[in-house]
Amino acid sequence: MATYVKTLRGLAAAILVLMGCERPFVPARVPEIEILAPDFSEVHTDSLLMLEVRATSFRRIAGVTLENQPLHYDSLRAVWKGIVKLHWGLNRLRLTAVDEQGVSATDTIWALRLQATLYPGPPLVGGRGAGTLTRLPDGRLLFVGGASTWNGPASRQLYAWTPGNPAFTRFPGLLAEPRAGHTATLLSDGRLILLGGSLQGRPETADDLRPNAEVFDLHAGRGRIFPIAPTAARAWHTTALRHHADRWFLEVLGGYRRLRRDAAELGVASDLITFEVYPDSLRLLTPGIGYYLAPLAGHIMAPLDPDTTRFLVAGSLSRTEHPEIQTFRLRLDPAGPIDLLSAPPLPEPRQFATAVSIKPGVVMILGGFNGQPTQTYTYPLLYVETANRFFRYRTLPLEARFNASATLLENFRILITGGFGPDGQGLSVTEMVELMPF
């Protein structure tokens, strides 16, 4: 009986302890901040913007500040308002909401303010897309190959533009073979490596791919064909030149390739392959499957640093009903391993776009389409590595084009050349975009 009474007393004590714990539990939740306006994913041109913010919590919001300056509360709309002051270039702003108990939450706003002037550039001799544009050491621009229509045959012609001249003119000599969708890499000795490509403005089968490279001597006006392995034949790929210990390497990422050795079916490459550049040949160092990254073709690969060791890689494929977007940063240290760094997805699918590195850490993506040529973009995107995000530049309307070429001139000027319009016809019109330095 005594044991039974002790047990009841123990249970009663436990119940009292549990009852003592039955008090309201308040979680330390922080306020939630929602930016209603403006849209900071867009490039802005004005220096002053009206900011509207909604801050919510299960407790009363005591105040919202922008860079420690209080915002005004609009009780009719239940929003906080204030003026945002932007300087040229990238702006980083701190937005803080505090509730009545002093619990706060802080968001970072990234805002990009730019100003650009658009005017006509020197036209090509004829409409042409899927060519390459290379800036030569003497300041001239060289446009190589391409096709007059997206479904038409590739060209052997070269065109050059000298700054100050009204238009592109024929460059002496012809390519040994017609090419479109190739890459052009300028070597320090003045030779130009034209790797891969297609016999058509748009390859229909793997038999259209060029299983070679042409090394064009700009001084002599003629090229030499360097055969490469058929499995390494690519089109609409990207390349990067690396130098290490007096050796030169050409890295090739993605592109259309032969799906199987015994078939003409086209596939999309998912790897990074490497050639070593010799005076009279290109030697493939990855005879099998290269370094696997992601399926890519018609993508962009733009350097993010002066030493060209970091690149922004972005593109999309429309192989299914829903386009597949690939975006990442690629580190190609000549003396180190290959490394992938995070990057946000493209704001929208873009295939067959072109890109220009404006300054270290800033890339402009031009044109391209979403799924089909009739959905070709007329506004560019800006990627800023410091913020690691994209910005739409809708207030800079450009010619609708894909498979175009572009390069950076001096003083933040960009020349956009050629490409195909939404109807698949080659474009001769060029555009010069001049950005205010930032």
TrEMBL record:
Gene3D superfamilies: Galactose oxidase/kelch, beta-propeller, Kelch-type beta propeller. Signal peptide: none annotated. This is Kelch repeat-containing protein.
